[in-house]
Structure formats: structure tokens, C-alpha cells
Design goal:
- The chain has about 350 residues and is α+β, with helices and mostly antiparallel strands.
- It contains eight helices and 19 strands.
- A hairpin with a 3-residue loop joins strand 15 and strand 16.
- Helix 2 runs parallel beside helix 4 and helix 4 packs parallel to helix 5.
- The chain starts with a strand and ends with a strand.
Length: about 350
Amino acid sequence: MSLELKSLRKHFGAVKAIDDVSLAVGDGEFFSLLGPSGCGKTTLLRTIAGILQPDGGTIALDGRDITRVPVHARNTALVFQSYALFPHLTVFENIAFGLRMRREKEAAIRSRVVEALGLVRLEGMGERLPAQISGGQQQRVALARALVVRPALLLLDEPLSNLDARLREEMRVEIRRIQRAVGITTILVTHDIQEAFALSDRIAVMNQGRAEQIGSPADIYLRPATQFVAEFAGQINHFAVRVERVDGARAQVAASDGFRFWIASIGRAPAVGSELVVILRPERVRLDAGPHANRFTATVEDVTYLGGLTIYRLALGAHRLLAQAQNLGAPGPSPGATVPVGWEPEDGVCLVRN
């Protein structure tokens, strides 16, 4: 089912936890609310669930206004960060709990719980207690308990934050598999950019109670609307510059210290004198002497080995530059080495400077 929020607001005293948020989530879409602690993403999720009441705006589920509908009548299911399993109940009874509250018949309960156990790949574990299974399996039980009641909307509140790195990766794959198999509209709250990118069809990046940008993972990473979004989506290099001249499809810009390079001016060309911030991702900086439009010589200050990748911290005059290179077998430059660096005008993302 589809979900639509219009001008949603929630205040806690003088704090605007949700500040005029409007967004639409399509039927069967996996949508994430991404942002740092205190940005309003969990408050927004709990308002959608009905745990909190908004101070203004509306919430509609498949066209039906549920803004003031109580939690139990919304046909939504929320999976908490802590899983909230009953320690004294078996896996089977934990999953069956919502069905028993709805007074379903015993035969129907057994059939649907067995189906849910199969969906989350926990066949044969129904008689175990939560303490007798792993953290990843507990997460699957919580997910099965939410899905067994066949909600119209699945809400996930940082469900993987208690798992170690390997289990998080495994559960990301499982959650996406299950969501696609069921076809349920899903909203995830997370502060983990990799988690949001791996799971989501679209993402809303939250900042101070507002949805700063809504788009696909590629939109958020490659076409950030603001410097905040760019920085939250991954490491960046950024330059505060002024446009000095425009030459066809490119423009020359200069930093305050006179450092000059070219940017793309595709579409509406920036006016001479415009003040911009140019965002450059580390993987766009090439450590080679290729015929790049922007070519410089830099000094390696630091090297961070990350297995498949190496991050280089470079000194480029008064500027510090991050470069990322794949490790393909050949040794890279060491600290103190002088290296050629370059990038193309199209590699930078230009934002209007505030």
C-alpha cells in the first residue's frame, strides 16, 4: 500500500522534531529515513506508527487518512531496535503473539506461523527460546512476528544496529529478500549509509527535522542537493570557489588562495562571479598522469589501507585532498612521495554557496 505524508509537524517544546515533512512512498517500495542522531527520523517513524501524535499535517495509507487512528487500527507493524521478544515464550509463540491477540483460530495460527518461519529461514526452531538462538536469528523472529499479521506497512527502527558487521551484511540481504518476496511497503530508519544504500529504492536524508533530499541511492550519492547530504553520504573533498570565466561546456573556478580548476557547466552555465561549493568524491581523484583537464602534482601525507581500497591523504598546495584507489596488486605510493593527480570537470558536483 502507498503512504503519503503532507506537511507533517511534531514539536517537543521549542524543538521542531518534524518540521513540515511531505513525502510519498509507493506500493511495495522500500523507503529509508536516513540521518544522524537527533535529526527526527525515529520521531517521524513513530508518528507514522501512531505511537506519537503529530501537531499538524496528515498521514494517509492507501488514500485513507490515519492521522488520528490509534496504533492497533492502523494495520502497520513496527520492528524495534531491541527486537522486544518475550524471553519466556518460544520462537513459535513469539511469532504467534499478534495472531492470538486478534483471536485467530488455532489452525490458522499454526499455518501462518509455519509459513512465517519458512519465510525467514528458521524452520525447525519454533520450540526454542530467544536465549537459545543467535542475535541474527532473533532479528528474524522479530521480523516474522511483524509479517505474520500481514500488515499493510512494515516499519523498521534501526533493526540491525545490535548486530556485528558480518551479521549486519547477512541480514541486509535477508531483509531485502523477504521484503521483495512479500512485496510489502517498508520504511526503515537508519543512520548507516551503507545499510540505506543496500536496502532502499529511495531515501529521505533527514536534517534537523526536515527531509533535506529525497531520491534514489544514486541520486543521494552522485547528485547531492546540499553539502550536508554530500558529507553524510560519504567522504568528500570540497572547495569554496568563485567562477572566473565560462568557456562553452566548462567554467574555470578559483579558490581564495588562487588555486584554479575546471568544472562542467552543463545546462545553465554559472555566471562569472558566482560563488560555489564544488564537491569531489575521493574515487574521482586519479593518481596518474593521464590527460585530465585538471592536472596537478601533490605530496602523499598519509596512506590508509582498507583491503580492497586504499585512501590517500594528499597535500595540494594549501589544500588537503582525499583520493581513493582500488588495490589491484601493484604497490601504491608511500607517504612523502610526489604524485600526479587529476580529475575531469564532470567529476565535481557544484552547489550554490550560502
